[in-house]
Amino acid sequence: MYKVLLKASAQKALGALPLQARRGIAAAIDELASAGIHARNVKKLQPPIGGFRMRVGAYRVLFDRHEDIIVIHAISKRADAYRS
Fold it and tell me: Is the pTM of this model over 0.70?
């Protein structure tokens, strides 16, 4: 089991999403907490971005893993997820 931490920016982005999208992302985060990087739809990102991403419909959850802690940095639509 992993401990999941949401950065303030990710928490704000999650709160601004429609209810159905929030529910789907919350379920995906629960799966991420139990399975870690072996959860469905998780891929390692290539440099210069680095870290991992989880696909949840049209949204992407960008995160890093440090031993048993997962830090979620951003939650956004695919078109905006990989911009600097």
Answer: yes
CA 54, distance to chain mean position in Å, is 5
Strand boundaries in 3-41, DSSP class E: 3-6
Give me the phi and psi of 66, to 5 degrees please: -125, 100
Range of the domain at 53: 3-81
What's the token pair of residue 52?
């991992």
> Residue 32 sits in a domain of what CATH number?
3.30.2310.20
Q: Number of structural domains, the chain?
A: 1
Q: Tell me the per-residue pLDDT of 51-81, one tens digit each, with 9 for 90 and over.
A: 999 999 999 999 999 999 999 999 999 888 8
CA distance 25 to 75: 9
